[in-house]
Design goal:
The longest helix has 27 residues. The chain contains eleven helices and ten strands. The chain has two domains: 167 residues, no CATH class; 115 residues, no CATH class. A hairpin with a 5-residue loop joins strand 5 and strand 6. The chain is 36% helix and 12% strand. With 322 residues, the protein is α+β, with helices and mostly antiparallel strands. The chain binds cobalamin and iron/sulfur cluster (2 copies). Cobalamin binds next to helix 2, helix 5, strand 7, strand 9 and helix 7.
Length: 322
């Protein structure tokens, strides 16, 4: 059983995943932390995070794949790009939309597992009832209702930092997570039991909006510049516009502040987006916006959202000059 795990880990590395660990498909112990965060109610317009059906799935991943027996948790590294403009753009927006680019990597891994198990079955000349090549699976990347960071801790990838980011000793926190739920019974890895944050509070101090709670290791999302510039629907109130600061799209301040990211290997297998947002995008037509950002996560804000962000940043920069 552990041989298949080693085969999958080696294949994951070959495909460009920097981390790969396994956990069971059992409900995560800290769903209560999620519920508490929901109750505190700093969701802003992200109401989808508290829908009854998706809460149930976060509480029990087997609702996403009824015969799931194990979960393969993977990470893909990204570089933290230097900020070249006063209108700052999160590093992940330098890459093509990661939902689209990580999916084929995970699909390839599933194909490799299937062909490995087919070969094994042929070689052995008999059926392996538990490790069948006819296994079922489900890939989750960000948008599925699953507690990605909790499962990553349980699969041994790292710890949840005060910034609420999942951090690994070698790769810091500049990476994306992806899970493959499998009907195969693969031996789980040891959960990550250490806390690499210690007495550090750099992210708490550097967060421009003081929205990090170092005790619960969650953030007050409706004050977070990443939320406001990516997820917030509708216009900004004057207070929200001020909280946007100089962030045109997303925010990396708590990643940049983290000492674990200062020695992160910067190579990423992910392809760069055709364009990154800039101040002059306020003049784009809807068609030009779609064409410019066709492969970028910026599409999520829609043209109105991007123009709203540009207007807020410009005003904040002007205020700073007064
Ligand atoms: C909603 C969301 C957001 C919201 C809210 C973020 C937040 N911190 O809650 C907003 C829009 C603000 C956001 C911003 C960003 N996001 Co986001 N986001 C999500 C999403 C969809 C859900 C997160 C969520 O449920 N939050 C609620 C809190 C309560 O849950 P949680 O963070 O998982 O917290 C758990 C841990 O704290 C855990 N826990 C486990 N063990 C322990 C131990 C201790 C001691 C403690 C205290 C807690 C704890 O319990 C909690 C419940 O499970 C996930 C994808 C997913 N499906 O999980 C991506 C995700 C978290 N985001 C991601 C990224 C990359 C970002 C940004 C960096 C993007 C950017 N540059 O702008 C920022 C970073 C901001 C930040 N500090 O978190 C990555 C993070 C990868 C990583 N290394 O951790 C994810 C996993 C997406 C992915 N597949 O890669 N995001
Ligand atoms: S993404 Fe920015 S605003 Fe949000 S918690 Fe991190 S530093 Fe604060
Ligand atoms: S900056 Fe310090 S406190 Fe914040 S997540 Fe990184 S190590 Fe932890």
């Amino acid at each position: 059983m552990s041989e298949i795990k080693e085969v999958i880990k080696a294949e994951a590395e070959r495909l460009g995943f920097c981390l790969c660990g396994f956990t069971t498909a059992d409900p995560p112990d800290d769903f209560s932390r999620y519920l508490q965060w929901i109750r505190e109610g700093s969701l802003g317009t992200m109401a989808y995070l508290k829908r009854e059906d998706t809460l149930a799935k976060r509480a029990d991943p087997r609702l996403l794949l009824p015969d799931a027996q194990s979960i393969c948790v993977l990470a893909v590294p990204m570089a933290l790009f230097p900020q070249e403009s006063a209108f700052s753009v999160a590093s992940y927006a330098h890459y093509k939309d990661y939902h689209d680019t990580i999916l084929p990597m995970a699909d390839d891994l599933v194909k490799k597992i299937r062909s490995y198990l087919s070969e094994l079955t042929k070689e052995d000349g008999h059926q392996l009832p538990l490790l069948t090549p006819d296994f079922s699976y489900r890939i989750c990347i960000d948008s599925a209702p699953i507690l990605e960071r909790s499962l990553a801790v349980r699969a041994g990838l790292g710890w949840v930092g005060k910034s609420s980011m999942l951090i690994n000793r070698k790769y810091g926190s500049a990476f994306f997570l992806c899970e493959i739920l499998l009907s195969l019974p693969i031996e789980p890895d040891e959960p990550y039991a250490l806390d690499g944050c210690g007495s550090c509070t750099h992210c708490v101090e550097d967060c421009p909006n003081q929205c990090i709670d170092p005790v619960t290791r969650t953030i007050q999302a409706d004050r977070c510049a990443a939320y406001l510039t990516i997820e917030h629907k509708g216009d900004f109130s004057p207070e929200q516009a001020a909280l946007v600061g100089t962030h045109l799209f997303g925010c990396d301040e708590c990643l940049r502040a983290c000492p674990w990211n200062h020695r992160t290997p910067s190579a990423s297998p992910l392809p760069h987006a055709s364009a990154i947002p800039e101040e002059s995008d306020e003049n784009l037509t809807a068609e030009e916006f779609k064409a410019k950002f066709h492969d970028s996560p910026v599409l999520r804000t829609k043209i109105k959202g991007l123009q709203r962000n540009i207007a807020a940043v410009r005003k904040n920069l002007e205020k700073g000059e007064e």
